[in-house]
Amino acid sequence: MDTNANDARQPDNGAPLEVAETAIPYAVDATADTTPASPNYRALNLAKLQAQGMVTHDGGRTSVAEDFRIIKRPLLRNARATGPDAIRHGNLIVVTSAMPGEGKTYCAVNLAMSIAMEMDMTVLLVDADVARPSVLKVLGLPAEPGLMDVLLDERLAMSDVILKTNVATLSILPAGRSNKHATELLASRAMSRMLSEIASRYADRIVVFDSPPLLITSEAHALVGQMGQVVMVVEAETTTQHAVKEALRQIESCEHINLIYNKTKGFPGNEYYGYGYYD
Predict the structure, then answer these.
(1) Which family would the database say this protein is a member of (predicted)?
(2) Where in the chain are the domains?
(3) What is the sign of the dihedral through the CA atoms of 238, 244, 246 and 251?
(4) What is the mean pLDDT of the chain?
């Protein structure tokens, strides 16, 4: 198992990270605040997200931004692979965890934001944690119709519920309304057809799914089995080795599994969190 690790430095009190003067190139709609592009347009408060330690276009070279540059690179390499190295649905990346509270949504949003910085990529961020959706909440947006609504209503198109943002290369598909048959819906032929369409319709699109935890819900298994790449978030010094092994056992049929070691402590006496990456 190859190992790549980069220790991030982020205050755990939510204070803004130190920002470099040079902004990272990023596709942002400069008129977003006053000229919505469509009824499905939503403006993200990028300054607020940056202050919360998230990756944003003008956040500079923060350690979190650098960590996700490292994390995304092998995922993008796999997604772009062709010929004998090509991965089926390689551009569909699901972010999950063994247990709740390990930071999977935070990592999914940051991963999507980081990929959106690529010069030749667009990103669709899907909230597939349909029992406890968190993506819109993290981004400061209200609940909206989404994935579950499309699966439940054949008259509803995915384009009807995808949200465009002031990050021109980033779109969002909310979880939508909750449903007691969510597992069956995620495992349905309608979902498979939707995933195939998402994966093949746009050659330059990466789709990042925020999935339910593996050891808590059955929805995660229905979803993970249809993805090309899996990213599992492990909370440092909290998630037990048994939980990690059990979660990995449940997705062992997936060929491309990556781990993010999240919330690692810094040097003794420092109140820092960080990330490690394992493939």
Answers:
(1) Belongs to the CpsD/CapB family.
(2) 39-278
(3) positive
(4) 83
